[in-house]
Design a protein that fits this description.
Layout: H1 3-8, H2 12-17, H3 26-40, H4 42-46, E1 56-60, E2 65-70, E3 77-82, E4 91-95, H5 97-105, H6 110-115, E5 120-123, H7 125-138, H8 142-146, H9 150-181
Parallel strand pairs: 1-4
Antiparallel strand pairs: 1-2, 2-3, 4-5
Length: about 180
Amino acid sequence: MGQIADEMSLPGFVRRLLPAAVGFPLGPVLTLSLRSFARRRPEIFERLGEFCSARYLIDPTDLPFVFDVVPNGQSATVQIASGSQPEIADVVLRGPIMALLGIVDGTFDGDALFFHRTISITGRTEAIVALRNAIEDAELQPSDLLGLKGMAASIANTAILGGVDFARGAVASAAQRQKERA
């Protein structure tokens, strides 16, 4: 992956602090959240068509674990696996976690990241296109995934998006300091 990917990757000291086991409790929580979201917004999952039962392996290259997602509506599953396990999926999306989050929240253009080699996609590309279109059309906010409304939604969106922006800034600063040292 290219220079932009290096600039979006978590700093080395953060990666060393995160053992693969840190991600494992996320699987059941994310599965419940995704299923709840499917009950509230089934049209997003219907938009996936035949790809709702596809396996999407999302591999944040700067984390020691991967997300194995089957977005099958109310039967959706999210499993967390060690990044060293074999990849058996319909499509694999790889890239730094900040780039992947930026695609979801609309901060970054997935096509641009792909063509700059910040992210890579292997497998059934039509499945990832269907997922991208469903996410873009939904115009999601963090509160949508959490099932929050009103003031709680506003607070959650501000806090989560602010936290992600802060993390992006920290990653960019660390990358800049590393460049200056080199």
